[in-house]
Amino acid sequence: MTLARAVAAKLVNEDPITHEFIIGTAAQQEAHEIGPDVDHNGLPGQASLAPGETRTISFTFGKSGSLIFACHRPGHYAYGMRGTITIA
Ligand SMILES: [Cu+2]
Question: How much is the pLDDT for 36?
Fold first, then answer.
């Protein structure tokens, strides 16, 4: 079954360094990991957050399954800054 579910999330970067929050498939995360460093703000399900910055993002989940959220600042993904979102 395909359902469109829009979700908004408030992201707070309490770290003294910049982070990213990117929702995508494993293939999309791998592409981000090797791609150029860009400003992700304004893209659905993506954000770049400066130290101390708060942003609200929105994303529409189109079907059940799972996606990954991750940060691709240098070394962050390899360090484990990622997780799984389950859409049920
Ligand atoms: Cu990070």
Answer: 78
Task: Tell whether the model's pLDDT for residue 40 goes beyond 80.
Answer: yes
What does the domain layout of the chain look like in residue ranges? 2-87
The CA 85 to ligand 1 mean position distance, Å, reads 17
State which fold the 2-87 domain adopts.
Immunoglobulin-like (2.60.40)
Q: Distance between CA atoms of 74 and 67, rounded to whole angstroms?
A: 21
* Spacing, Cα 82 to ligand 1 middle (Å): 9
Higher-confidence position of 60 and 1: 60
Q: Rounded to an integer, what distance in angstroms lies between the CA atom of residue 53 and that of residue 30?
A: 26
Mean pLDDT across 26-46: 88
Q: Ligand 1: distance of its center to the CA of 76 in Å? A: 5
Rounded CA separation 8/68 (Å): 16
